[in-house]
UniProtKB/TrEMBL annotation:
Pfam families: MOSC (PF03473). PANTHER family: METAL-SULFUR CLUSTER BIOSYNTHESIS PROTEINS YUAD-RELATED, MOSC DOMAIN-CONTAINING PROTEIN. GO terms for molecular function: catalytic activity; molybdenum ion binding; pyridoxal phosphate binding. InterPro entries: MoCF_Sase_C, MOSC_domain, Pyrv_Knase-like_insert_dom_sf. It comes from Aliidongia dinghuensis. This is MOSC domain-containing protein.
Length: 181
């Protein structure tokens, strides 16, 4: 499926919408990004905690393709790495086309497994009005396309930084398409 590259890495200790770009971030097995509000073995997103705090955290690491930012800027939105709450901004990978269970080796040691799509929430319109509609689309059959990135869990720890390569390993066939997690 090819190779991509890390454009930016971000984290934020609070439950704010955007995350701050960093020189590097550390991934912790089964938990997520060190120093990030969404790190944990069980759900950390406030809406999910309110429903059932014992659910496993399938949203430990949020990845977005930088190509989306160009598309959004062309639509008049001001977005940059970390602005949409992602931990890892990538280039050169069609993240949305990956099947569930795809593994991404990022840098020398870190490995994450893609669990599903990020389902954009209403907070995105609070960041910039109209942005929610801009990260949603329809495919040729009329199905909803969520373009706000993918979520993953950490399988192997490691430090990652901008410029690191990303190598994709697909799961065994038959492939399961990504669904919101």
């Amino acid at each position: 499926m090819g190779q991509g590259q890390v454009v930016a890495v971000s984290r934020h200790a609070g439950h704010d919408f955007s995350k701050t770009n960093q020189e590097s971030i550390a991934l912790i097995v089964g938990e997520g990004v060190a120093g990030d509000a969404h790190r944990g073995r069980t759900v950390q997103h406030r809406s999910r905690v309110a429903k059932d705090p014992s659910q496993p955290n399938l949203r430990q690491v949020h990845l977005i393709h930088a190509e989306l930012f160009g598309e959004l800027r062309a639509g008049g939105f001001d977005v940059a790495p970390g602005a949409l709450g992602e931990n890892v901004t990538t280039r050169g990978l069609d993240l949305l086309a990956l099947p569930t269970g795809s593994r991404l080796r990022i840098g020398a040691d870190a490995i994450v497994e893609v669990t599903g799509l990020r389902n954009p929430c209403r907070q995105i319109d609070g960041f910039q009005p109209g942005l929610m509609a801009a990260v949603l689309d329809r495919d040729a059959a009329g199905g909803l396309v969520r373009k706000a990135g993918v979520m993953a869990i950490v399988l192997a720890a490691g430090e990652i930084r901008p410029g690191d390569p990303i190598e994709v390993t697909l799961p065994p066939a038959p492939y399961r398409p990504l669904v919101p997690v």
